[in-house]
Design brief:
Shape: globular
Distance between the termini: 30 Å
CATH topology: Aminopeptidase
Number of domains: 1
Oligomer: single chain
Largest sheet: 8 strands, mixed
Order of helices and strands: EHHEEEEHEHEE
Number of strands: 8
CATH class: Alpha Beta
Helix content: 25-40%
CATH architecture: 3-Layer(aba) Sandwich
Number of helices: 4
Strand content: 25-35%
Strand order of the largest sheet: 1-2-3-5-6-8-7-4
Amino acid sequence: MELTFRKANKEDIEVIWEILQQAIARRKAEGSKQWQDGYPNPQVIEKDIDSNAGYVLVNDGKVVGYCALFINDEPAYSNIEGNWLSNGDFVVFHRVAISENYLGKGLAKKMMSFIEEFAINNNIQSIKADTNFDNAGMLAIFNKLGYKFCGEVTFRGTSRKAFEKLLILKN
């Protein structure tokens, strides 16, 4: 499997939306309330791409995963019920989704390693993220990859678990 991680472009929107629709359906089938309110949607993807935040995981030329990456740009994180591990610059990721055809191959963890690489390349040692209380898959990934539970944040009126991982920057 030859994986690359690159910025998404307008030509990727259709396949990204397909991947996100699959993830939305998976959340629903698992009984999760996450992503069951019309978010994310194609306009969110377009906004991600327009702001240079959309990224795709590509296998042999085919888009197999999506996420949005932002630097110091998550207003909800300033109102955490709890405490972050750090107060400096951070990368935040949202909308992590892997194609239905590629589940169970460790690609979500691989995408997370690309996100860590993105942070290190930008000289940032903190990655912050959140997920729904009932997203067992993402909670397991956070646990496996050394993310620490920091408290709760609120998005669109819903409380979510917030996590942070501190990275070691290379000199």
